Amino acid sequence: MTPSPPSTPIRKRLTRDQRRDILLMRSLGFTYTKISSHLKVTERAVQYTCEKGAATPQHHNAGRAPKLSKEEVDTLIEFVSSSRKTRRMSYLQLAEHFWPEGEELIVKFLLLADLVKS
């Protein structure tokens, strides 16, 4: 006896190229139905893409997680800004004082906070 297929088929996310094609076809005046049949995607996917208006979606899990939390970055910025002595510390000294991640990480977050010049 063969297993029956699931009642709801598994759907994949649209690729960037599919989203781009949807937006292009829609701007040329194609209907949701024509776009969905041509690209073999659901009408709902076409509608959603047109409503979002972006060919490159940003998912909640996109990108690498930061090595330092927001609180750690705030602590670092507050420490560096607190006195003349701490502003003159090298990146290596800051890294040794706070975290073992290394001075490159410290440089990155201080650059992002506009506390050092590149």
UniProtKB/TrEMBL annotation:
InterPro entries: Homeodomain-like_sf. This is Transposable element tc1. It comes from Lasallia pustulata.
